[in-house]
Specification:
- The complex is a heterodimer of chains A (222) and B (214).
- Chain A starts with a helix and ends in a 14-residue tail after the last helix.
- Chain A is built from 8 helices and no strands.
- With 222 residues, chain A is mostly helical.
- Chain A has one domain (35-214).
- Chain A has helices at 4-41, 45-65, 74-88, 90-98, 100-128, 135-164, 172-199, 202-208.
- Chain B has 214 residues and is an all-alpha fold.
- Chain B folds into 2 domains: 1-83; 87-214, no CATH class.
- Chain B is 84% helix and 0% strand.
- The longest helix of chain B is centred in the middle third of the chain and has 30 residues, at 120-149.
- Chain B is globular and about 50 Å long.
- Classes of the chains: A mainly alpha (222), B mainly alpha (214).
Chain lengths: 222, 214
């Protein structure tokens, strides 16, 4: 094979890329995992549910393809882990007590991760069920999902406050501001994921192996 | 049954007119604009039927009129202040209505857009999310109105959260009823019964005529 060395070096280059990519993603998923474990130890029901949902979406492609390289992009995984981390960190609590903008930041982080879950849902529903969405509907779904879940989230927090006699929801204004961030973050991410997939290199899409499924352009129902 | 619902709808529309007249006569004008707007909205389904041949299910039609009627009569009679939970009742009525309209739209989209396929369980899930999202959006609009125009649409945290709770319940109810409905009547049949096809023809005709006349 005359072209042997050239091809093989290209091959090792892509696998190395894939390895780094996957390693970063695994590290990010560990962050998500241990944050969820922490929530479990604290019996923090909502965040346990959030963590389990996020982890399930993370491991589902890996398990179903039996290929550890089918891991989510690391940046997406970090986005998923961010609000859980912010929630459990005591440093964040101090910031929360002292700075208003920090609360907006955590609210936004929460919105971005919810939108990420919504996005992953559209992709994985495409992979494992008959559900088919085109891109506009996918974007609409991400926004509706983000706002819907955060609505239920706040209602459950409120019920929890009454049952446990706590005050996690401080005031109407706070809740409304977090909804504002959810609206902003959800809508933003609807468009960002559209651009994100357009901007992602073909090479990387192949490495990741499934994010391109957000929309399959040629699919038509009979 | 259908005749009865139609009759009831008419009665409630008459009631809305009565509120407007009573408001003007007694000089109690606060709810007059709301009554007039509600009346106009309650005629939209009839207009759709007359001009576009779109026929909403009678139950949905009835639900629209009932929600508007309860809102206007309750407002005019002071039920919002005097009857505890009235606010939440009307809220649940309107959010279930929005959920139902969302359901109709999504079923139509599912039928006419070939790159979309939404099985029933997903449809139900989507409707729950959609109804809640609209509830959140509604509260945000009230909040914006309160902050910018210094009105008092939101009474406080408890009130807002109970509103949202009822939005969520309404979402589940609509999703269950919708999924059950599609189990009895196929989605194709349902969309056919709305006469969306004829509406499309009408619109295409209209656009063609305009094009020809230019």
């Amino acid at each position: 094979m005359a072209a042997g060395p050239r091809t093989s070096s290209l091959l090792t280059a892509t696998t190395r890329e894939a390895l780094i990519e996957a390693e970063l993603s695994w590290i990010a998923s560990m962050v998500l995992f241990f944050a969820t474990v922490y929530a479990v130890l604290k019996l923090d029901v909502l965040w346990i549910a959030f963590g389990i949902a996020a982890i399930s979406l993370y491991v589902l492609p890996i398990i179903s393809t039996r290929n550890p390289f089918r891991a989510l992009p690391w940046e997406m995984t970090l986005l998923l882990a961010a609000p859980v981390l912010l929630h459990i960190s005591s440093g964040s609590r101090v910031m929360l007590d002292n700075f208003v903008w920090w609360r907006h930041l955590t609210d936004l982080a929460f919105a971005l991760s919810l939108a990420t879950i919504g996005f992953l849902l559209t992709v994985e529903l495409r992979m494992y069920t008959d559900v088919r969405m085109n891109r506009p509907f996918g974007m609409f779904f991400v926004v509706m999902f983000t706002m819907g879940i955060s609505g239920f989230w706040q209602v459950i927090e409120y019920i929890g406050d009454i049952v446990n006699d706590t005050h996690n929801l401080v005031s109407n204004r706070h809740v409304m501001m977090s909804f504002v961030w959810v609206l902003v973050g959800g809508t933003l991410m609807g468009f960002v994921y559209d651009l994100y997939l357009k901007a992602m290199s073909e090479n990387r899409k192949r490495t990741l192996g499934f994010v391109h499924l957000w929309e399959v352009p040629n699919w038509k129902k009979d | 049954m259908e005749e009865r619902l139609k009759l009831l709808s008419r009665a409630m529309q008459a009631g809305t007119v009565a509120v407007a007249i009573a408001g003007i006569v007694t000089g109690n004008l606060t709810w007059v604009p709301a009554a007039i707007i509600a009346l106009l909205i309650s005629f939209i389904p009839s207009l759709l039927r007359r001009d576009l041949k779109i026929t909403l299910p009678i139950e949905l039609n009835f639900w629209i009129v009932l929600a508007l009627f309860l809102h206007v009569v309750g407002g005019f009679s002071g039920f919002y202040d005097s009857i505890p939970g009235w606010d939440h009742l009307t809220h649940m009525m309107s959010s279930s209505l929005i959920g139902a309209l969302g359901f109709v739209m999504v079923v139509i989209v599912d039928k006419y857009v070939t790159s979309i396929y939404l099985p029933r369980p997903f449809l139900a899930f989507f409707i729950v999310m959609f109804t809640m999202a609209m509830g959140v959006f509604w509260e945000l609009m009230e909040f914006a109105n309160d902050s910018l125009a210094h009105t008092q649409l939101q009474y406080g945290l408890d009130d807002t959260m109970v509103d949202l709770l009822f939005d969520g319940i309404a979402g589940f109810i609509v999703a269950i009823i919708g999924a059950q409905y599609l189990l009895r009547v196929s989605a194709d049949h349902f969309v056919d019964s709305l006469h969306v096809d004829q509406a499309k023809d009408k619109v295409v005709d209209f656009l063609q005529k305009r094009k020809d006349s230019v």
